[in-house]
Design brief:
228 residues, mainly alpha, 75% helix, globular
Length: 228
Amino acid sequence: MRKYVAEFIGTFVLTFVSCGAAAVSGGVDGVLGILGIAVAFGLSIVAMAYSIGNISGCHINPAVSLAMLISKRMDGKDFIGYVIAQIIGGLAAAGLLKVVGSMCDPVITGLGTNGYGDASYVGLDMTGALIVEIVLTCIFLIAILGVTSKESFSSVAGLVIGLTLTFVHIIGIPLTGTSVNPARSLGPAVFAGGEALSQVWVFIVGPLVGAAIAAVIWMFLNKEGENS
């Protein structure tokens, strides 16, 4: 249960702080801009990795948990528990963010949602958004699987993962808002409703497919390394 609570807390912090940074700063054209929002996501991961990493591994992302399941680094029971905790964490954070936004003057309606078409800063279409999310998640997960594969990397793992999340956000924010995390996308979409909710399937399917591909690639590379 401690692991599931840790995953709830981690996903809550990631969603509330990072999506909140995007929402309250005015988005891509706002005070923080692309780089500032990307750094907010990266720093959230770094903070949580060194806070709850020793308890749950700090997945705080169903895509990460799926990759760990496929690569046989976690069992099915924990996978289900982790994903449920992550989704609840994302929903709780988005709900609180909406409440806080309603107390602002003027009222903040954005929740850091993802989107394509009119909801994309550059007008990326649905197919493009799906491809982007698959590729960016695959890159992110290969880095995670690699840096968590050896105990000797443990002291820098959180920093590497946070920096990787930052750089995938730098390119992904103007394209889709960058998901690479179904829990982080679902929570804000549920409370935003409308277009964000109708499009959220892309930001659930894309990251999960990308995670599965990353796990297969990692297992292939690891097997080759063992045989060489």
